[in-house]
């Protein structure tokens, strides 16, 4: 008598098939069990090594449905050919394999807000190191006149500044205008908070919710989406879902690229 294997699992309970993705160097994935997010730097028999934005390495087994790519489960597999170097950085620029960080330029980019600075580092960090551009944290626009005065920008030391939600006619706008010159450029993105610069699709939400005026925006967003009200932890989760420039809105991309071009332009 022919033997049949019985599978009594209802169809709706069977795991859905997920795509297999070659674990090529530079591919950014997340290991859901630990929340560790990083780029592939090495893939060996049965394991893959990831490096996060702080340079920390973790080794994980190559298991079915073991990773998230842009928020979706995938099965990482060993590349079929030899090691493939990434051809693009997270910002979309052409990668320079083996390039060392350039000696820092005199020029600088200041970014208002810690979350803003972390996002710039994650997406443009490779480009900035190759160009020798240092990013500094700006606590608030009120500090800008003193910073510009002390920095004394000139032809060989240009200063670029990225600020939040720069609206014409406001106090912040007037301060930005007062320090702008041929060697100092201040630009602003249109978002109330840098969180909004991350595309909703990267986070698995339909849209960023509208928060009533007068309410803390981040807290209001967390409440509307049912997220924990620990905004620091939520931001780290958001940042972990950003794999490249493709996860960001073009209005932010344009401003950051403008600043990089400005501070690296020949004297």
Task: Please sum up the structure shown.
This is DUF3097 domain-containing protein. The chain is 27% helix and 21% strand.
Question: How would you describe the overall organization of this protein?
Answer:
It comes from Streptomyces rameus. It holds the Pfam family DUF3097_N. This is DUF3097 domain-containing protein. This protein is α/β, with parallel strands linked by helices. It contains seven helices and eleven strands. The strands form three sheets. It has a four-stranded antiparallel β-sheet, with no helix packed on it. A four-stranded parallel β-sheet has the order 9-8-10-11, sandwiched between helices. A three-stranded mixed β-sheet has the order 1-7-6, with no helix packed on it. A hairpin with a 2-residue loop joins strand 3 and strand 4. The radius of gyration is 22 Å and the shape is globular. The chain starts with 19 loop residues before the first strand and ends with a helix. The N terminus is likely disordered.
What are the salient characteristics of this protein?
single chain; 267 residues; alpha/beta; 4-stranded antiparallel sheet; 4-stranded parallel sheet; 7 helices; 11 strands; 27% helix; 21% strand; globular; DUF3097_C; DUF3097_N; DUF3097 domain-containing protein
């Amino acid at each position: 008598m022919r033997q049949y294997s019985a599978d009594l699992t209802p169809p709706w309970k069977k795991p859905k098939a997920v795509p297999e993705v070659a674990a090529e160097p530079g591919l950014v994935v997340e290991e859901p069990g630990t929340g560790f997010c990083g780029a592939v730097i090495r893939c060996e028999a049965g394991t893959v090594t990831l490096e996060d934005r702080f340079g920390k390495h973790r080794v994980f087994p190559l298991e079915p449905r073991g990773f998230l790519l842009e928020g979706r489960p995938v099965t990482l597999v060993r590349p079929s050919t030899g090691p493939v170097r990434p051809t693009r950085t997270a910002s979309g620029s052409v990668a320079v394999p083996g390039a060392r960080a350039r000696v820092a330029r005199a020029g600088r980019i200041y970014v208002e807000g810690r979350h803003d600075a972390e996002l710039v580092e994650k997406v443009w960090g490779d480009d900035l190191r190759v160009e020798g551009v240092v990013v500094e944290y700006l606590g608030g626009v009120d500090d800008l006149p003193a910073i510009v005065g002390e920095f004394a920008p000139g032809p060989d030391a240009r200063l670029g500044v990225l600020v939040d939600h720069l609206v014409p006619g406001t106090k912040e706008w007037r301060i930005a205008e007062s320090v702008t010159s041929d060697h100092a450029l201040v630009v602003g993105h249109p978002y109330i908070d840098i969180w909004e610069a991350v595309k909703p699709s990267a986070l698995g939400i339909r849209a960023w919710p509208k928060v009533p005026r007068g309410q803390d925006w981040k807290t209001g967003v967390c409440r509307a989406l049912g997220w924990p009200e620990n905004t620091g932890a939520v931001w780290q989760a958001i940042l972990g879902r950003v794999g490249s420039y493709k996860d960001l809105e073009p209005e932010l991309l344009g401003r950051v690229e403008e600043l990089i071009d400005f501070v690296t332009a020949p004297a």
